[in-house]
Amino acid sequence: MKLQLEQLQLQRGQRTLCKPFDLSLEDGQCWGILGSNGSGKTTLLHTVAGLHHDYRGRIVLDDTAIEQIPRKQFARQAGLLLQTNEEAFPGTALETVLTGRHPHLKAWQWESEEDLALARETLQQVDLAGFEQRNLLTLSGGERRRLYIATLLAQQPQLYLLDEPANHLDLRHQHQILGLLQQLCTTRNKSVVMVLHDPNLAARYCDHVLLLHEDGNVESGPSEALMTPEKLSVLYGYPILHVASDAQPLFIAG
Ligand SMILES: Nc1ncnc2c1ncn2[C@@H]1O[C@H](COP(=O)(O)OP(=O)(O)OP(=O)(O)O)[C@@H](O)[C@H]1O
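# adenosine-5'-triphosphate complex -> structure
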């Protein structure tokens, strides 16, 4: 699968969030989107997920503009983790994860034993084994976040779009979940695009990054080239220092 953004430009009111830019994303790549608050990261992610149509340029998935792809088919190709979720009809954890299988079911078709097994497996992958019958509203913030990540895993898209997946997660779960996403790219040839606030997580797990500057300029490419203290200081409007360490370089606020 190939995702191409061609001269993509985003505007909100008088503000240009993204000046026209091109980007080509291949199977197996893990991208991080970085930028300061309000720079347009969520708007960009939602636009790529087909939720906004008020953009200029083209968004093309395997040679087809995303508007031309029926939504159910699109949901088998690309899945989105929202920054926050509203629970209109809270059910159990298992029922919630099973909604990830819906793009794969025919109208009125019930989930199969395979769907159930996959849902249980994804709960296990995010450390929620044993939570199957728990009501969603009784879960903690981090448990709920992991539940929605499990739901996206159960959807099994080719392209994973995630808005701040590390939100609400403790240190261990941040690394467990981002490691899992990275593995999907390296071992299963899936693609990931995730909005991250922590440059250290991006440097560790993303092979490519998109830096979304407040003036609408977009820089994109391999992480090694773009994840520098100079570029990050400009991006966040705050001094960022680079600390050498044996394990890997660390970025800290100056
Ligand atoms: N409908 C709208 N009308 C006016 N401004 C809007 C509208 N929607 C979004 N914006 C503005 O566009 C900008 C980008 O919003 P967006 O949510 O994409 O930012 P973000 O980079 O994800 O921010 P954060 O890091 O705070 O989550 C913000 O300044 C927001 O206030």
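# post-check
Residues 8 and 39 are 15 Å apart (CA to CA).
The chain is about 35% helix and 25% strand.
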